[in-house]
Amino acid sequence: MVTAPMPQPSKTSRRRGRLTPSQFREAVQAGEVRRVRIATIDLQGRLRGKTFPAAGVVEQLLDGTMHMEGCGYLLATDLGMVAADTWWRDGYPDVSLAPDARTARVLPWVPHTVLVLADPLDVVGQRLPIAPGTVLREQLTALARLGLELRVGLESEFVVYHAPDEDQVQQQGARARARRPVTGPGRDYALDVPEKVAQFLARLTSALAGAGLPVEAAKLEGAPGQLEVTFPYGDATAACEQHVLFKEATRSYAARRHMAATFMAAPDDSTGSGLHLHLSLWRENRPVLAHPDRPEDLSPLGEHAVAGLLGALPDLMPLLAPYVNSYKRYRDHSFAPTRFAWGRDNRSCAVRVVGHGPGLHLEVRLPGADAQPYLLVSAAAAAARWGIEQHLAPPAPVTGDAYRHTTAPLVPLSLGEAVDAFEASTLAVELFGEQVVAHYALAADAELRFHERHVSDLEVARGFDQA
Q: Is the pTM of this model over 0.90?
């Protein structure tokens, strides 16, 4: 078996994380940085852009005169980069992309390359309202008007498989393509990690640290081949950017070790991968979710935030669970919630209160690994803000099995159900505006229509001889 060669250490290893303008210029002049990727982040949370010779663009980037355009469908396609018919009405003109040199970052998994993020702009030069980064920025600004800052930490599960050997595929056909997880079942918290997996995690965490994205912890999870990586708590926008780059690096290093990583919410019948959102609210650099006199309990503001999450997220589910597959993760006793309930250190709830004293915070357990981080955090920020502004009171916390707490509303059973609620919601429009709601409803509808038009292998296997 031949594996892809690992890149040799390069001079870019001297540079770590974000580059100041002078560091950026010096690295290009010294030949340490030869290419610049200018990219925006699409609706699915992927980098999309162009690669430029660094020497030709570095000065324009640093003085703010760099101009770049891309087809507007970058923010209007499905997972397969297919544009929906309804989005052809304007002919898909270009959108301007405004690179921000302050985001320049070394990418250790792409030798001699720096990434610069770009904001999509509308025709008058304003940030495009439907762009995920703009959506998040608006929600953080709305919280700031209340004197509040959102801080988050993301906890990502994903599954890694052995990649099939192409010679075997040619000889054995589809049978050889059967996915084989890199670990067996029941390995949650196990420390005797298979050598190949340990090497993959070591290289991944080292590369992320080199990109200025340090990992808090990595571990095996319960399902076959499932891993979990958590990141330190901090700025909400930085956490979202970090997650996008983490997924790119994960896929890159897995491929180099003849493996394949997936962030599907439900990659098979018995596996669910989540993207748990840990969040807290701060005012004047102090956390405000814990009660000042009873630090193990929520403050009134914290209770308002919980009530907002439980009350608004049912209308915002396409922003947390955007695909048909997303809803196959919500099963009883799966550690993915099926009801909009909350509780103290209760993993059967959609919102879990966790931590102690000033570290008390909320964990939103609804999103799957496939969630777009900017949209996920935006939805949680908007929901919590609504609860605070309206001084909402949450229902009683659940102290037992929330899967059996029949008075709590059910999580939608399908994307279709979630889209219906989203499109009909006056609250969603109040929180995000008509343009954002309409755009993301169209995106979800496109996902539904794709599945309606295609026959799956499972349908054929189940019905070919028996229907």
A: yes
- The DSSP symbol for 263 reads -
Candidates 443, 422, 442; CA nearest to 432 is 422
* 3-state SS assignment for residue 412: coil
Query: In whole angstroms, how far apart are CA 221 and each of 248, 334, 337?
Result: 20, 13, 18
Measured between alpha carbons, how far is 394 from 308 in angstroms, rounded to an integer? 8
Query: Contact at 8 Å (CB) between 317 and 423?
Result: no
Q: How many CA atoms lie within 13 A of 209 on its CB side?
A: 9
Tens digits of per-residue pLDDT, 168-220? 655 555 554 568 999 998 899 999 999 999 999 999 999 999 999 999 999 99
CATH of 141-463, one of 3.40.50.11710, 3.30.590.10, 3.40.50.1260, 1.20.1630.10: 3.30.590.10
261-307 residue pLDDT tens:
999 999 999 999 999 999 999 999 999 999 999 989 999 999 999 99
Q: 218 forms bridges with which residues in the sheet?
A: 229
At the fourth CATH level, which superfamily is domain 16-126? Glutamine synthetase, N-terminal domain (3.10.20.70)
